[in-house]
Amino acid sequence: MHQTVNIPMLQARRIKLAQLLETPVLLWSGDRPARNFPANHYPFRASSHFLYLAGLPLENAVIHLHQGRLTLFWDEPPPSAALWHGAQPNRETIATMIGADAAYPLSELMPGESPDDRPILQPSKWTDNAATIGLVSEMRSEQCYVLDRSVNSPNQPDELDCQLTQALISLRLCHDTAALAEMRHAIAVTVQAHQAGMQATPRAKTEAEVRSAMEQVILAANMTTAYNSIVTVYGEVLHNEHYHHPLQSQDLLLADVGAETQNGWAADVTRTWAVQGKFSSTQRDLYQIVLAAHDVAIAALKPGVEYRDIHLLACLTLAEGLVDLGILQGNPQDLCDRDAHSLFFPHGIGHLLGLDVHDMEDLGDLAGYAAGRQRSDRFGLGYLRLDRPLQTGMVVTIEPGFYQVPAILQDAQRRENYKDCVNWERLRQFSDVRGIRIEDDILITEMGLEVLTRALPTEVDAIEQLCQVG
Amino acid sequence: MHQTVNIPMLQARRIKLAQLLETPVLLWSGDRPARNFPANHYPFRASSHFLYLAGLPLENAVIHLHQGRLTLFWDEPPPSAALWHGAQPNRETIATMIGADAAYPLSELMPGESPDDRPILQPSKWTDNAATIGLVSEMRSEQCYVLDRSVNSPNQPDELDCQLTQALISLRLCHDTAALAEMRHAIAVTVQAHQAGMQATPRAKTEAEVRSAMEQVILAANMTTAYNSIVTVYGEVLHNEHYHHPLQSQDLLLADVGAETQNGWAADVTRTWAVQGKFSSTQRDLYQIVLAAHDVAIAALKPGVEYRDIHLLACLTLAEGLVDLGILQGNPQDLCDRDAHSLFFPHGIGHLLGLDVHDMEDLGDLAGYAAGRQRSDRFGLGYLRLDRPLQTGMVVTIEPGFYQVPAILQDAQRRENYKDCVNWERLRQFSDVRGIRIEDDILITEMGLEVLTRALPTEVDAIEQLCQVG
């Protein structure tokens, strides 16, 4: 536990929560799942809701929050653990670090009995009437046991937990300065990682080598990746987690890589560059269209604007560009109304960013979608992860793309539906573009916006220059 | 699924299993646990027992084995998955890749019903009387459901599963040429990673930077780490997974880092080097003692030898060296009989290596300990993970160490017990050594042994030279 913690900011979060919620709250941090055997576990990642209010990734901890008071429940490791894991701070030290008002062993939550014996617990003053958020791991059964009631998966909270869920959403939607400091730190390292990737590419033979150059920067900063990196010459596979392909001289390489700080705050950045350092003219033409959509979308961000409208604006800009290039044909607005642009840009323009790379996606669409709204059935809107008016303090990604996805473009039904919209012969001239995405992280400010990732260029010339440094 | 698979070798394993076991077998591969939200999962690691017999890390797959025949149960991803994950090989292709005799969707295992409805299943010809190995994840409840019976954690198999457990142990204890080829590959990359770590150290400011240089090599080879890396100047913390400490000029750095191939085979290597490249005379003196124990232990390996005796031999060599240095006092054999060496070497001399870094440790001590044997209560033997006579084809680690563990050396009871054994004043002169470990991977051969990790030197001079290349 060598992380620094901003106690006044944590206390402010706890007080704000108390203002939104009268009932007491119990939040679990979770534990480490086993990989191939119990002692060989995956790296621990605490629940984001716990991190938001406790501030430290404490394993197997529970916090009780009521009226701004925080009580920590955590078992000190047995003395024998010191041999394997070193001397650990004791409970009192941890409590001081996170600004807890009191601290107890876990047995205090479950009075009189060891949790291993699994008796029917008496409700304690800590568990009685307490709201919680279900973990996304098997530890949810532990929550049910301690609370002696059902605890649903967090995207379908039980009645008692709905108000807490909404309170946490309203807090976590807009970031305080401590959160922003963490995210700026994650972003600074992520920018360096992308620069390292560009520089490593000319000498790299495989996707894996470029990925290794990027993640090396993140590991050197003692951070982890916020999500499984995408580093691929098959950028049309949106969540491609394979890295074995050789780099061919005419390929574009798409890298979607973001760091996560030790306290769990994420960055999420995508750049696309040419394996040989120089874009072909067709690659440059399509890249400029994606970049135009990216720039237009970012310029339109400000408090009060509907994120869905930002998405639609980016789609229109993309459609206009594709019409100009002769790939789409017709009136751009009409094409968008028919979702023809989605043939090449099938996902949403972005999402919330915070402690989770898709922030609060454990809650399904409860955070991403304003009350009463739900996902559209439309081809061009179904994958939109955020549909809310923007507020000061939100951080969102803007990440338009152009992809030639065989599963879409070879689909007989879609080809039929859009046969008048696409000039397939013209499209064939762009066969050296499989996938392009440009993704930045943007803070909504009172004045409009701040591109947190601005240190990493998006223009073709600047990217080509970075590749040539290598 | 771009991995290569040695089908004849897999079929030979399946036939050997059938020779040991009449009952049918169902083995699950498992799935990916969620990290902070369901779509942001940890990287998939298939169950090692599944990998041993199926050969490919197929997610959410089940194999049925009977009389050498393999039947695969696996659901092809829905067409919509192609957008996110690319075109996947179909079931028939996968079946051909792994040499399956037949392949069905998972519903064939659970006839007539969708698994989500959770009806009481009819025993099918596939599940009836089938033995299995419990997974170490929450998916064990899925196994119980399909088999309609209890499935214990794998270290306490149900009666029906005991024979399968023993059969798998006897197969997996001794490696075939396909397994050895995989392990040699993992080891070759691991050797490069350690060389990179040594070379990066003179310019590194933190443990994290050295770790990043090492894991970069593993990622570039499109492998993963077989376990959470230990890269630390606090080597006395045996499973230290922190990387934030600055490197101080007088420190030793201990790196226990191993690669794992895409098909799951592990390497496990430790080296200790000086942050400044040059060992101090006290560091060199203690390193030579650990190296002597390492060399003596390896030289004694051959089929038929008891691994416990190798452990005791290493302990004796260590004790002799510490007596020569004046840190321990008394007769070395007597000191060992009293476990005095364990004050400085509290763990076992090594373990099995294979698909798991502690091979088959999901089975508790069932694989590591010969039938009828169990862990000793003795301070000097309690952490020994392997107590069997060695056999041709086994791969074991040999990893003696010297540590100054505060939790041991400051313990009043231990200081009292061993007050006549330790020259505490002499020990103080070695305060620039907190932890040293030297770990190699060794194949037991008919002729004796082969040090698989021999490409990475262990001698002080050679290690100092590697550090100076950086």
Describe this structure in words.
Two copies of one chain form a homodimer. With 470 residues, chain A is α+β, with helices and mostly antiparallel strands. In chain A, 35% of the residues lie in helices and 13% in strands. Chain A contains 15 helices and 16 strands. Chain A has helices at 7-20, 48-54, 81-85, 91-98, 140-147, 159-173, 177-200, 207-220, 281-299, 307-325, 332-337, 406-409, 412-417, 424-428, 460-469, and strands at residues 25-28, 34-37, 40-41, 62-66, 69-73, 102-104, 224-225, 230-232, 252-257, 259-260, 269-274, 395-398, 401-403, 435-437, 440-445, 448-451. In chain A, strand 2 and strand 3 (40-41) form a beta hairpin. The two termini of chain A are 37 Å apart. Chains A and B meet through strand 2, strand 3, helix 3, helix 8 and helix 12 of A and strand 2, strand 3, helix 3, helix 8 and helix 12 of B.
